[in-house]
Write a structure and sequence with these properties.
This protein is of the alpha/beta class and 223 residues long. It contains 5 helices and 7 strands; from the N terminus they run H-E-E-H-E-E-H-E-H-H-E-E. The protein has one domain: Vaccinia Virus protein VP39 (Rossmann fold, 3-Layer(aba) Sandwich). A 7-stranded mixed beta sheet has the order 3-2-1-4-5-7-6, with helices on both faces. The N terminus is likely disordered. Bound molecules: S-adenosylmethionine.
Length: 223
């Protein structure tokens, strides 16, 4: 099943270690590999998402190589976390190239954030919950550290909502995960809801719903 832990190549490795190693391995080439899709669509979607971010304190989960850094609004302070030291090293370079961006980076597992409850006004992640080994646990942690009423803004690829294509993606999910650390058949909209977020808006960005922008909020109200 798309959301169940899949088999990974070395049974001695946890899912988390497998994901970390996959991204450490690809970190230097990651931006080059993503360049075509970045130019075609991602950069437009990133710009549009970050235009809506108000913060001021924003958690970016899975900051990766720092591809969102150029789009951080001037008035927000971003705390970025990632599992992979290799990816974070690239993100630090991106921050050097964009000195106006205010961000601090931490090596941290999204499923076990060390921040206190209600630490952030908003949480953002782009193309991350396809990789987090237990996405609902990661989304629940993001909810815990986001203030009551605080926003979640995601860009994600996920399982197609056309059943025939969805089933093909289910079959590809295991092999592609072993190779890249990515799950292609996650049901991320459902995962966001299952983690306790209240969905505000889901926008289909590509045919069959394989790319989506997901906006949600923390349904708790401040005391
Ligand atoms: C596909 S990349 C996307 C990176 C970046 N957000 C972007 O838009 O280019 C997924 C990122 O999520 C990170 N990641 C995966 N599982 C994670 C976890 N449990 N905790 C923190 N980061 C994680 C990976 O290390 C990787 O940098």
């Amino acid at each position: 099943m798309a959301n169940s832990p899949s088999v990974h190549p070395d049974p001695a490795l946890s899912q988390t270690d497998h994901t970390r190693r996959a991204y450490d391995r690809h970190a230097r080439l990651y931006d080059a590999m993503e360049w075509p899709v970045e130019q075609l669509v991602y950069r437009r979607w990133r710009r549009s998402l970050w235009q809506d971010v108000e913060g001021p304190d924003v958690l970016e989960v899975g900051v990766g190589t720092g591809k969102n850094v150029p789009y951080y609004p001037a008035e927000v302070c971003v705390t970025g976390v990632d599992l992979s030291e290799g990816m974070l090293a690239q993100a630090r370079r991106s921050l050097q190239r964009h000195p106006a961006a205010a961000a601090v980076l931490h090596l941290m597992d999204a499923e076990h954030l060390t921040f206190p409850d209600d630490a952030f006004d908003e949480a953002v992640a782009t193309f991350v919950f396809c990789s987090v080994p237990d996405p609902v646990a990661g989304l629940r942690e993001a909810l815990r550290v986001t203030k009551p009423g605080g926003r979640l803004r995601l860009l994600e690829h996920q399982r197609a909502d056309v059943e025939s294509l969805g089933r093909v993606m289910d079959r590809l999910d295991g092999p592609l995960h072993r190779l890249t650390g990515v799950h292609v058949a996650r049901r991320t909209v459902e995962n966001v809801r299952d983690a306790g977020w209240r969905l505000d808006h889901v926008e289909r960005l590509a045919p069959f719903g394989v790319f989506r922008r997901i906006d949600a909020h923390n349904p708790l109200t401040a005391n």
